[in-house]
Design goal:
Layout: H1 9-24, H2 29-39, E1 45-46, H3 47-54, H4 58-70, E2 74-77, E3 86-89, H5 93-118, H6 124-171
Antiparallel strand pairs: 1-3, 2-3
Helix pairs in contact: 1-2, 2-4, 5-6
Length: 174
């Protein structure tokens, strides 16, 4: 690995923070480290470079990268050496993470709905359960509407950013 590929101290700290965040969400810490690494690199990174930079074994890195690819957090791309697999962060990584969180909200709302239809309202514990499920359903229903509003607004903002980038590229001499 060339020296230019080594992360700076700030980038190393960012990579570690991503590992910690992913672990706190119940995902693999290594997945967060990979995402953090790819977010710091302007060029695609090979699995071998990930092994060297992250000081991890190739097997777990390969498994984690495949899982991240399935989640649309990273994507496989062409690299300088055709015999290697190269990856970069997905251009929509943050929105794809948002969709992952949205799926959890929908699943929680669905659980509340399903159990509300099954509950028998006899007894004190059942009444408490029913109130809890009604609260859960209302909370996640509202959360889902916020997510939908946010998703619409995000695409508007993203289009504005893309237009600004196009305008800047058009006026920047090459």
């Amino acid at each position: 690995m060339s020296e230019s590929k080594a992360p700076s101290p700030v980038e190393k700290e960012l990579i570690e923070k991503f590992g910690n965040i992913y672990e706190s969400y119940g995902l693999r810490r290594l997945q967060g480290l990979i995402v953090g690494l790819l977010l710091t690199k302007s060029e695609p990174v090979s699995l071998d470079d990930m092994v060297e930079i992250l000081d991890r074994s190739k097997g777990p890195i390969s498994i984690s990268v495949r899982r991240l690819d399935d989640m649309d957090y990273v994507r496989k791309v062409e690299g300088p050496n055709n015999r290697r697999n190269y990856y970069e962060s997905h251009p929509n990584i943050f929105f794809n993470n948002f969709k992952f969180n949205m799926q959890t909200v929908r699943e929680n709302r669905s659980i509340a709905e399903r159990f509300l239809t099954r509950i028998d309202t006899e007894g004190d514990e059942t009444e408490k359960t029913k109130r809890s499920l009604e609260h859960m359903e209302a909370f996640y229903d509202l959360m889902e509407s916020f997510f939908e509003d946010f998703a619409e607004r995000w695409w508007e903002v993203k289009q504005e950013q893309l237009a600004e980038e196009s305008n800047q590229e058009a006026v920047t001499p090459r």
